[in-house]
């Protein structure tokens, strides 16, 4: 039996005026999702439990069958695992975004122009983070380069609960004054953020980017604090040999911590220009190599939601359907039995440009148990109309693997 998860990050949404009161899922041309939905169990699942923030960390742990209340120790430690940082139990890690801030004189008066530093490349970002490390790193704080705008700060003997640290993707276009680090033990973090702006605003990498008409990645922004994660082995928990295919350190880190195989695919970006076909080929190769379970994560719908890019979000869904889901399902037909789970981890509504904790649509298709769902278009409303509801998202994986 083969099990395939197509995780469409942030795909769920709210009705959009630009789409005549429909959601991107409703208008996207996605024949493969719709075909599966017609023969599958369709419903909604609550991937973010009450009291938890609706991040991709919590939501993907939930989809993978790990109860966040038990296993979640913060977002950044999972990314640190992917980067290859050997964390001590006394270390605290923080996500370090390279962001674009506006050029007002006082830091607190600046606006969050772009939470991802103008789509900075990994190579450019590495040069900037290494420069920050040279100037701000010490025995207490160490900066590590990651992928694109996503990096890591390790705080030796740090406070795992330093205060309130706001994700930059939650505040697009807003003055940062009300969202700066708050709490008894955040003063050092704020000082480093301010100093990073002074270091980076005139760095040659950013001067070159500005000359090319690109946004500069001119400040570090800290959030997502946590401590060393301890996940049970996916194989030990479910008895399935699993692989993870993703462009982002968060998902790679979850895979590493769960002793799953993390597969790298060339030219994956986490955005709409990612290598969809490469991810498809990698998934098929993993099944051919003997893996029971393959989880393909695509970040593109989420990034489009954060940027308010309506047309691109629709397009991202269509590209996933055409270049990953369709071909993988066609390949799986060569096996006697297979099951497919398609869902987002959380919504990223275009109207708020950040995550929400609203339950998301799911479909679970089993080749040996085809159903008549009465659903012809897989979307938020059709999923809700079935009456199927999984209240505890972390229980869905057990249910799916029972197929």
Task: Spell out the blueprint of helices and strands.
Blueprint: E1 2-8, H1 24-27, H2 31-38, E2 41-45, H3 56-63, H4 68-71, H5 76-83, E3 92-101, E4 112-114, H6 122-136, E5 141-147, E6 150-155, H7 187-200, H8 204-211, E7 219-226, H9 234-238, E8 242-245, H10 249-257, E9 261-263, H11 276-288, E10 293-298, H12 300-307, H13 310-332, E11 338-343, E12 360-366, H14 380-385, E13 389-390, H15 396-401
Parallel strand pairs: 1-10, 1-11, 2-13, 8-9, 8-10
Antiparallel strand pairs: 2-12, 3-4, 3-6, 3-7, 5-6, 11-12
Structural notes for this entry:
The structure is a single chain. With 403 residues, this protein is of the alpha/beta class. It has two domains: 241 residues, Alkaline Phosphatase, subunit A, CATH 3.40.720; 145 residues, no CATH class. The strands form two sheets. An eight-stranded mixed sheet has the order 9-8-10-1-11-12-2-13, sandwiched between helices. Strands 3, 4, 5, 6 and 7 form a five-stranded antiparallel sheet that branches. Strand 8, helix 10 and strand 9 form a beta-alpha-beta unit. Helix 5 packs across helix 10, helix 11 packs parallel to helix 13 and helix 12 runs antiparallel to helix 13.
